[in-house]
Amino acid sequence: MNKTILLVDDDPFQLKLYERLLQDNGYLCRVALSVDAAEDILKNFEVPDLIISDYEMPDKNGFEFRKQLLGQPSLKNVPFLFLTSINDERFIQEGLDLKAIDYMAKNIPPARILSKINNLMLAVKEHYERSLSEVKGVAEKLNLRNIPLQAPQLKNFEVSYFNQSYQSQPGGDFIDFIKVDDRYTFVILGDVMGKKWGAWFFSFSYLSYIRAAIRLCVFDGNTSLSTILNKLNRVIYADELLTDIFSTVSILLLDDELGKIAYSGAGDLPVLKFKQDSRELESYQSDGILLGFSEHVTYTEIEIGLKDEEELYLISDGMIDFQVNNEKKSDMNLFKAKLHDLKIRKEPTELLVRDLFNKHTSQVDDCSFIIVKRK
Known about the structure:
There is one protein chain. The chain is of the alpha+beta class. It has 2 domains: 4-139, Response regulator (Rossmann fold, 3-Layer(aba) Sandwich); 147-374, Phosphatase 2c, domain 1. Helices cover 35% and strands 26% of the residues. The protein has helices spanning 12-23, 35-44, 62-70, 89-97, 110-141, 196-219, 225-238, 332-344, 349-358, and strands spanning 4-8, 28-32, 50-54, 80-84, 102-105, 157-164, 173-179, 184-192, 247-255, 260-266, 271-274, 281-284, 302-304, 311-315, 321-324, 327-330, 367-374.
């Protein structure tokens, strides 16, 4: 995916020059003629991969802009490059003291501007990949995993899943299968609100609570999904570390002895079922809100019948999100139409996943997909 750069300069001609240069060389650009305009862009759009800002601007200058960004956790680590016509060591040092990665003079040739930006982006990418590798290594050693290694093997049901993280970065989607005995297996799909590392970190907290709630209820002889979610929500709401951290979750209980399925969810997307007789998609929607959003919530439970060769689909919101003109859009009906078309053509599960994801070229979030099929 193309990298996005935010350009901030009060000179319209200079701004257009840089925008054209970068767009012609594969970058996506957002432009602002003032710090206030740049702040509006940062509030309303995805966080850019790089910010390039002029120093000398009316009202608020580049240093003030940088200081404001350093006070915002979601923006302080975005690489920042100063653009200036002032060749003064004092100004340069002040910019570097504000953790800018470099400065660039306005009068250098376009080829050098492009080379400098390309080299900076490459250095940032290499640094990120090293950090990602180290963190993943530690997580593996601690056996921290929010996506399982394999699906459970059951007598009456076939379970498969797919997960594709956004830009290969850890994210908030999590999947788990809890087989408590030969009869009961819980299928879990959740999505912690937030992006990248923060959501990824909190997904382990949510998974721990979900696993504990299920085990404790099962030990008491209670397999009610509504009971499990009601207790789980109250505990999460009371956890101060998870204040303002919310999650969706879909839970299926597979009864492998009677061949029955129960479903309950919190703030999740509908569970879909492809019906063999009518060749249509049926939706099952929970009425519970996000986990941790409110202390007193009543979660309900739905029984879902599944005939031979019929399939259930659990999806995260990344499956219905896409990008148009560099803006994020969501369309559940578009996803359902694509899924329905594949099923009408009788695509096997493996090809179904391949077709859905290989053509998902505008992925803007983590994508997760669980399929439960009656054998």
